[in-house]
Amino acid sequence: MSDETITLYKHMKDLPSNRLLGTGTPMCAGCGGLLAIHQAYDILGEKTVFVNAAGCMTLLAVYPYTPFRGSWLYTSMASAPAGAQGVRDALDIQLARGRIKPEEDLQVVVLTGDGAAYGMGMSSTSSAIEHGLDFIYLCYDNEGYANTGQQSSPATPHGARTSTSTGPQGFGGHKKDLFAIWAAHRPAYVATVIATEPVDLARKIEKAKGLKGSRLIIALSPCPTGWDFDPRETVEIGRLAVKTGMWPLKEYENGKVTHTRVPPKRAPVEEYLEKQGRFAHLFHPRRNEAMLAEIQARVDDYWAGVEADHG
C-alpha cells in the first residue's frame, strides 16, 4: 500500500462531507458507537456489506429497512465471522465465474459490540483469522452488554459499576486486551480508534480498506445510557479517554505496534472517570483513593512501557 493512499486524510477539511448512513435511527442520543460507524462508513463507501452480530446496532434495522446504502446481514452474536466467511466465499465464486465484475465486488465488514468481539464471538473470530478470511472486523466497544441493560462484559474496565457489578468496588476484573489477542494471530492489521479523533479514524479505516486479509478496528464508544452521563458529554468524554491515556490510539501491522497519538502531557485519569456515573462510587460519598491510585498506576505503567520501547 502506498504512502499516498495512507496519507489521504491529513486534516479535517479532507474528510468526506457527504454522509452515507441514513438519519432517524432509533439509537440512543449521544451514542459514541453510532458516531464512529457514521465516520467509518463514509470512508468504506457504498460497496460494503455489513454482517451485523446481535447487539446495540441491531437497532439500525427496522425490517425491511436499514440506514445503510448497501447490503446488511444480521447474525447471532457469536457467528458474525462465520457469516462473513459465507458472504466472502459467495462473492469470490461469483467473481471467478464472471457473474460479477471486479469493480462490483464488495468489502465485507463484520460489525459487533464488545460482547461479541471480546467474548461470545471470540472462537469464530479466531478461526476466521486463522483461515485468512479477507474481511474488516469493526467493533464498537461500549464496555458492556449495553443493549440488554449494561451487564459487565470482558471489555468492562476495572472498578466500573454495571447492572451485574453493583458492589462498592464495582467490577473486580480487568478489561481484556483484544488488540493484543488479535495481534497474536498475526493478522494483516489491527487498530484502535475513537470518533472524537476523526482524522486518525479516517486514516486507519482507509489503510484497512486498502489491505487484504483479516483486519480489526476497535472503536471506543462512549455510551450515555450504560456509562451514565449526559449525551451532550459524549465528545468531551471521548477526548478525555485519549488525553488521560485510558484509550491508547495505536495500530499493528507487519509485526510492529505503532502509537499514532501520544498525549504530550497526560491528564489524571480521574478527569475521565468522574464524568461518568458508573464510576461515581469512587468519588462519593468519599473518595476511594486506593482504587483511583490503582487505575492511575495501570495507565502509568502502560505508557512507561511505550516510552521504554521507543527509547
Report on this model:
- The protein is an alpha/beta fold.
- It has one domain (12-310): Rossmann fold.
- Helix content is 35%, strand content 16%.
- The chain is built from 11 helices and 8 strands.
- An 8-stranded mixed beta sheet has the order 2-1-3-4-6-5-7-8, with helices on both faces.
- Helix 2 (32-44) crosses helix 7.
- The chain is globular, with a radius of gyration of 19 Å.
- Residues 1-5 have low confidence and may be disordered.
Which SSEs are present, and which pair or pack?
Layout lengths: L2 H4 L25 H13 L3 E6 L17 E5 L4 H17 L10 E7 H7 L1 H9 L4 E7 L36 H7 L4 E6 L3 H12 L4 E7 L3 H4 L6 H10 L5 E5 L2 E6 L8 H4 L15 H21 L2
Helix pairs in contact: 2-7
What is the N-to-C succession of helices and strands?
Answer: HHEEHEHHEHEHEHHEEHH
The rounded distance between the terminal residues' Cα atoms is 28 Å
Q: Radius of gyration in whole Å, from Cα?
A: 19 Å
Mean of all residue-level pLDDT scores: 94
CATH architecture: 3-Layer(aba) Sandwich
Q: How many strands, which pairing sense, and closed or not: the largest β-sheet?
A: 8 strands, mixed
Q: Count the domains.
A: 1
Q: What name does CATH use for the topology? A: Rossmann fold
Unreliable stretches: 1-5
Going across the biggest sheet, name each strand in turn: 2-1-3-4-6-5-7-8
Helix content: 25-40%
The CATH homologous superfamily is termed Thiamin diphosphate (ThDP)-binding fold, Pyr/PP domains
Q: What is the 3D shape?
A: globular
Number of separate strands: 8
Structure classification: alpha/beta
Task: Report the sheet-strand fraction.
Answer: 15-25%
